[in-house]
Amino acid sequence: MELLSPINGRINSTFKKCNKFETKKFGAPVSVSCCLSGPSPQDEEGPFLIKSDWRSFRARLVAGEQASPLKELSAAAEYDGATCLLPITIGDKWAHTIHEPEKGCLLIATEKLDGVHIFERTVILLLSTGPVGPTGLILNRPSLMSIKEMRSSALDVSGAFSERPLFFGGPLEEGLFLVSPRGGGVERSGVFEEVMKGVYYGTKESVGCAAEMVKRSAVEAEEFRFFDGYCAWERQQLRDEIRAGYWTVAACSPTVIEQTSVGSVGLWEEILGLMGPRKVW
């Protein structure tokens, strides 16, 4: 994992004394190593790091960077002459700015897009950043009708999902859906693409598979969110728009974009509140 440059300086200076050591606190000796490249599988099994995905690990680093020097010193502990930071905890919901767009990040419209009807105060979830260019879904446009009422050609769905609300995902015509399953059926199916931990997306080609999973009670119909349309950019186009100040790029916890948040007009304000007054751009 490539860390943000302002974090590197402080983490390096903080961890420069931290070498491999053994702790006697837990009975049998446990070997602990400080690593700046990200959590290894054995790290996440250890007592000092919370089991989570790499985005949560990075969020704790960002929280540590934003903490005052006194708080950082108070979080340090001495073990056999080696200084190591104890893990910094983060809340259930978090969001922070990042420098470059990545899969699973958010694009948050700035005041420069005020007056642009489609994108004003939008929150866009980037589904991919592939070689063709980034694609994403607008998350905070309320749904006014169901799939059946909309009669969308982008999502030809009958039966299992016909009564589900249909949200506006962007100006380009294509049917997509998000699913945040409570069980592991979606992950095991291998049909849907994981965009962040516990959140998957699919296209109109995989709707049939999704309907079959609902019939088999592998997942509930209420766990799906359907979108008519999506957003897309050429790779350099999005970078230029970010540099021009049209978008703030942010990482967030999956709980920020949970199902109840999709279609909420207050999502834009909520994410800005989680990030606080500090902005990158």
TrEMBL record:
It comes from the Eukaryota. It comes from Perilla frutescens var. hirtella. This is PPR containing protein. InterPro entries: AlgH-like (IPR003774). It holds the Pfam family DUF179. SUPFAM superfamilies: VC0467-like.
